[in-house]
Amino acid sequence: MEHAQEREACLEQTQKYHVKRPIYNQELLQGQLHRRERTPQTFRQRIAHSCRCSSKKAKSHLYSFLPILKWLPRYPVKEYLLGDIISGISTGVMQLPQGLAYALLAAVPPVFGLYSSFYPVFLYTFFGTSKHISIGTFAVISMMVGGVAVRVVPDEVVSVDLNSTNVTDLFAARDAERVQVAVTLALLSGIIQLCLGLLRFGFVAIYLTEPLVRGFTTAAAVHVFTSQLKYLLGVKTNRYSGPLSVIYSIAAVISEITTTNIASLIVGLTCIVMLLIGKEINLRFKKQLPVPIPMEIIVVIIGTGVSAGMNLTDSYGVDVVGNIPQGLRAPKVPEIQLIPTIFVDAVAIAIVGFSMAVSMAKIFALKHGYTIDGNQELIALGICNSVGSFFQSFTITCSMSRSLVQESTGGKTQIAGTLSSIMVLLVIVAIGYLFEPLPQTVLAAIVMVNLKGMFKQFGDIAHFWRISKIELVSTFVASLLLGLDYGLLTAVTFAMITIIYRTQSPQYRILGQIPDTDIYCDVEEYEEVKEHPGIKIFQANTSLYFANSESYMSALKKKRLKEQMCMGRKGSTLKRYWLSLSCVCLLSQTNDVEAGVKHEIANDELPVNGKFTSVDDSVQDRSPDELEYFVEPKTNVHSLILDFTPVNFVDSVGAKTLKSIIKEYKEVGVCVYIAGCNGPVMNELTRLNFFENTVTRDLLFHSIHDAVLACHVKDASASQTALDL
Fold first, then answer.
1. What CA–CA distance (Å, rounded) separates 188 from 25?
2. Number of H helices, E strands in the chain
3. Where do the H-state alpha helices sit in 17-138?
């Protein structure tokens, strides 16, 4: 009682509005409005307009293609330069060890990670639109590249014959072939990204939903972690790719666990502890520290010094980075003949790389109040990957950890990224050889600790399980068991299938009115909602097209009331007799409308099978089941309203289905109306010749309430006409 009183008091305080206007159908509404005059352009005119060039248009296109021309002349040196320098140095000291470490994931020698941390980063400064993301090597993409390289050039290719061939030369040849696969993959994925950007396909990232990306990256973290166990333990195992590669990798490590190199394990675990402590300090004292402590470069320097001082390679058999050539390599054309073999992988890598970069760029753009251009980001990444491939770099994208450092240390523009690439360049041309004694277990420790953020996503599984369990599970399981490339393809395909299934199997509702309002809701959902006697309002939360037209009609038949009129005549001398009997069952939605059926039965006889018999005899001849079926009381429906508010488009099959519905119900005395049909759908129906003699715009209403009121007016008019007769 108190709750009801509180609700009534709340309703009294609620603001109200009163509207008095005519009942609008589309014919009347279009007569009241005046369309703006528009001169349609022919295809030739549109082509000519797009090809027309002016100085202003050329300048706009140039600024769009090279965003640096727009922001660099306005660069506020006094305000931004110091922050960009600090940010560039901080990011550079992370870029160096991560480049070396992620090269192991890509199955190429570490120096190629340095190349990938220089050329693409420098190029992005000129073509990118984001001010804060850090372009370069990234664990997920590097893992995908490594999977392709290992699949094309497996370890079995270099079957070692110790009696006839130098082992070192065999492994060098294997690594050289894998480098060619990696750089060709970078070229192809870059070309794909460039073409998508030029064709304005920046929207492709929307097909990688958040649950899908979370499931994919979490599975990728498991792949990356298992691939680094061999380096952490110092065991010699083959690297696997493709379906069940995670299981094979774990099984291989377990089978060789007795050959663990204790020195490698101790060095690796020590580095992991140091990195975790450093990250925790950076996190807890973030506000007090002017810049984060660069624990990764510190660990690299300490590990290199210890390895060189104690001669870990010769004394304990610890694997090290090895030869790092000094200087830059001459440009070289990738091996084009590999393209057919790696095309599908390149598509997956191109889309995943773009999705990672644009999602991170959008976060920073929203935080700092500027906009990014998704199509230009595709072009920028495409140029970075394709041009970088000629200089022996593998596929890159945005790094989450480095981007956060670049933004948090005061970076304002991509000048910070340029400075970080210059730091990597100095290492390549001057001091790269100093890192040759660096143990590979140190790089494995860096990779594993950087997976911490991805592994934290396991905590989000419960949340995404509640809101999108199908996408999460399908993506995670498929990516974990089938590999990252095939797993992603399977997940996207499955997501598309679920979208098609949902449009083919939408929810259907019968709507009723909330009393004294123009609001209509599902009668099965709320007790207060009432149906109008004689009027059914049907809604489907989908568009009407070839894939769901049949299910739309089936659902409508299940939720409708279809009356058959049986009329008996005997020449021109007998009266007209009506027997209104319900013959198709409708799910009665509420108990507020009294179901009934009218019987106007005269005392005269009706002709049956050429004989005259009474109605009583006819009824007596029927079985009890027939009597129960035909004489069951039902509501007398005279109007059916189709709510088209959720409908976004109608194709030719949908328009034909709609015509069939209108015609079928008209034959049994039920008028069909369409409510809430938006402008584009109206235009499409007009184009499909939907409106003709039998179907006019008078059947379309601006809102459900307009249609309901029109039904009442028409029913009242028909009743008055019947009384007059």
1. 56
2. 29, 13
3. 26-32, 43-51, 55-65, 68-71, 77-105, 111-116, 119-127
Instruction: Return the sign of the alpha-carbon dihedral for residues 311, 314, 319, 320.
Output: positive
Amino acid letter, residue 62: L
Joined tokens for residue 476: 């995670």
Question: What is the token pair recorded at 338?
Answer: 């590999």
Backbone angles phi, psi at 397, to 5 degrees: -160, -165
pLDDT digits (tens, 9 = 90+) for 574-613: 333 333 333 333 333 333 333 333 333 333 333 333 333 3
CB 386 within 8 A of CB 187: yes
Split at pLDDT 50, 70, 90, the class of 15 is low
How remote is the C-alpha of 666 from its chain's centroid? 43
CB 175 within 8 A of CB 108: yes
**C-alpha distances out from residue 587 to 476, 555, 561, 634, Å:** 42, 11, 8, 10
How far is residue 121's CA from residue 128's CA, in Å, rounded to a whole number? Answer: 10
Copy the structure tokens of residue 563.
């009356």
Sign of the alpha-carbon dihedral angle for 212, 218, 224, 229 = negative
The DSSP secondary structure of 311-365, one letter per residue, reads THHHHH---B-----SSPPPP----GGGHHHHHHHHHHHHHHHHHHHHHHHHHHH
Percent of the chain scoring above 90 in pLDDT:
25
Quickly count: other Cβ atoms within 10 Å of residue 254's Cβ: 12
Residue 20, by phi and psi: left (phi above 0), alpha (psi -120 to 50) or beta? beta
Q: Using one digit for the tens of pLDDT, what is the confidence trace for 512-555?
A: 999 888 889 988 888 888 888 889 999 988 888 888 888 888 88
- The gap between the terminal CA atoms of the chain, to the nearest Å, is 51
What would the two tokens of residue 322 be?
């090895």
